[in-house]
User: Fold this.
Amino acid sequence: MSRTFAIVIFCVLGIGAAQAQHLQYQVLSPAQPQTVPGKVEVVEFFSYGCPHCADLHPPLKKWVAQLPSTAVFVRVPVSFGRREWGQLSRAYYSLEAIGALARLDDALFDAIHNQRQTLFDEESLTAWVAQQGVDAKKFSSAFSSSAVSAKAMRAEQMSRDYQIASVPTLIVAGKYVISGKTHEEILANASSVVAKAAAELKTASR
Assistant:
């Protein structure tokens, strides 16, 4: 009898993807605690520097908008120790801090992967956000702040706790690592697993 293996789409960082044990997901051990009680947490580990993350972003954004009220979506930018990606993680939290993330999120992916801009340090990122109409001083201040540093370090710790070896990676309820051969399959599997986790949460609360 043949076995079917699902492969997670990822950015290769010198580490091969493990073969999936299940069609829809692998089980993370140990499971990680969720940050929002009473909700099914969907965590996306990603980087603006990853082309596969850029490809997944548009359909994922639409998928997130259709999540049930029982679920919450959390994004975690990671670097895997790469300085360039570390700067992009700080950019994510800096844009979030000054209220510009929603407006420039898509644009930053586009600038790096379609326009081929090398936005991998504070100077180039600050110049870019200024071109987008964002206050450069506010961005730069946030970029160098202790609050952004703490969030970036926490993101790296989460990537280790969740055993993330590649991105993009979606994890549901702190334990279900979503698998799939295509973006469509990944998101369809994620929907099924969110429903599964919601049912488990409901049962556990009785």
Remarks:
- The two ends are 40 Å apart (CA to CA).
